[in-house]
Amino acid sequence: MLRAIYTRAEDFLRDHEQQIARGGLLVRGDIPPDLERGAAVDLELVTPAGTIRLEAQVIQILAGVGVAVTVSPDQVTELVDAVRSSGRPAAPEPSHGAATARKIQLALHGDKSQRAAILREPNKMIHGYVLRNPQIQLDEVAAIARMTTVAIDVLTFIASRREWAERPEIAVALVRNPRTPVPLAIKLLDRVSPTELRQLAKQSHVREPIQRAARKKVIG
After folding, report:
1. What is the rounded CA–CA span in Å between residue 165 and residue 56?
2. What local confidence, expressed as pLDDT, does residue 89 receive?
3. C-alpha distance from residue 131 to each of 3, 138, 172, 188 (Å)
4. pLDDT tens digits for range 57-74
């Protein structure tokens, strides 16, 4: 995850006007290892008026400077309004915590349709609770492994469960998901079926490091 921290409202508003409003942002600081151009990442914006987490995509990596990403201006509209109107951290609505708790309970104990509804929620922080529901089925896990809208933590959790990661259909779903970290995707190639491995080795839309690793396994 990338994090842009603004201690002053004016700094955030300046970056919004000059960068975010135009669809991008240079996140200065340390560059996460194995980060690649084109990778999907979670971006956290921390401001004096609150914090949000949103989806972004790496467009350039600048050694010693930071990472340039694409950002949808629509995702930060409420935060911009909050920063403009107040210099104090924005307090959540009284009902917000209760609503989130209810959704977590649905994720943990709800039926299949309720679990699917939770996965459509924009708040990615609650997605992971679906995987802890004792009623979840393998086909649901495979479907989640294919999703590009869930948090990276959800994908890594699926990979950490041996009974899931050892299933070829789940392994290949994670490998093909552009949000799965590259080192993890390469490791999961050991679980992919020979047919899928050959396809990964030759398909041009597969991320290059994964394609190279797949080719080595096919040849060797």
Report:
1. 26
2. 43
3. 26, 10, 18, 19
4. 999 888 878 899 998 888
Dihedral angle of Cα 207, 208, 209, 211, to the nearest 10 degrees: 80
pLDDT in tens, 21-43: 989 999 988 888 788 888 888 89
Owning domain of residue 65: 2-85
Q: Are residues 55 and 149 in the same domain?
A: no
Assess if residue 91 is contained within a domain: no
Domain count, the chain: 2
Give domain status of residue 92, yes or no: no
Tens digits of residue pLDDT in 99-148: 788 888 999 999 999 999 999 988 888 898 999 999 999 999 999 999 99
Does residue 8 or residue 170 have the better pLDDT? 170
Q: If we measure between CA atoms, which residue out of 74, 87, 7 comes closest to residue 47?
A: 7
Q: Which long-range contacts (CB under 8 A, 24 or more apart) does 154-161 make?
A: 154/124, 154/127, 154/128, 155/179, 155/180, 155/184, 156/180, 156/181, 156/184, 157/128, 157/131, 158/131, 159/184, 159/188
Q: Mind spelling out the 3-state secondary structure of 103-117?
A: HHHHHHHCCHHHHHH
